Amino acid sequence: MKINSTHTTPVNTDRAATATTGKSVARGAGRSADATKVAVSDAASQLAASATSSDFNASKVQSVSSAIANGTYKVNAGSIADKMLSDVGGLSRRA
Questions:
Q1: What is the dihedral of CA 76, 82, 86, 87, to 10 degrees?
Q2: Within a domain: residue 66?
Q3: What DSSP designation does 53 have?
Q4: Is there a contact between 3 and 68 (Cβ–Cβ < 8 Å)?
Q5: Coil, strand or helix: which one is 38?
Q6: Residue 8: per-residue pLDDT
Q7: What pLDDT, in 10s, does the model give residues 8-39?
Q8: From the CB of residue 17, how many other CB atoms can be counted at a distance below 10 Å?
Q9: Is the pTM of this model over 0.85?
């Protein structure tokens, strides 16, 4: 299976707001500079910390990327199905 790269265009949020509401939206309208506060949950902090760990294997990513680009990447459908069923089994036990 060969996957071609796709190109995406970023969404202009001002234009999208105008299209859906019919009104132009000014950036930062009605907000003062100190009015915006962001709180990060413990789970998000842990996720950010784990993203900086050394679990990333650049050579493996390059190898898989090359195989996909060449059309030689083979998907192990049985392994994927087993993991999906395992995940579903874990979800049903939580319910």
A1: 40
A2: yes
A3: S
A4: yes
A5: coil
A6: 57
A7: 555 555 555 555 555 555 555 555 556 788 88
A8: 13
A9: no
What residue numbers bound the domain in which 69 lies? 56-95
Tens-digit pLDDT profile for residues 73-85: 999 999 999 999 9
CB 93 within 8 A of CB 85: no
Q: DSSP code of 80?
A: H
Residue 2 counted as domain residue = no
Examine residue 95 and state whether it is found in any structural domain, yes or no.
yes
In a domain, 5, yes or no: no
| Phi-psi sector, 36: left (phi>0), alpha (psi -120 to 50), beta | beta
Number of domains in the chain: 1
Give 63 or 30, the one with higher predicted confidence. Answer: 63
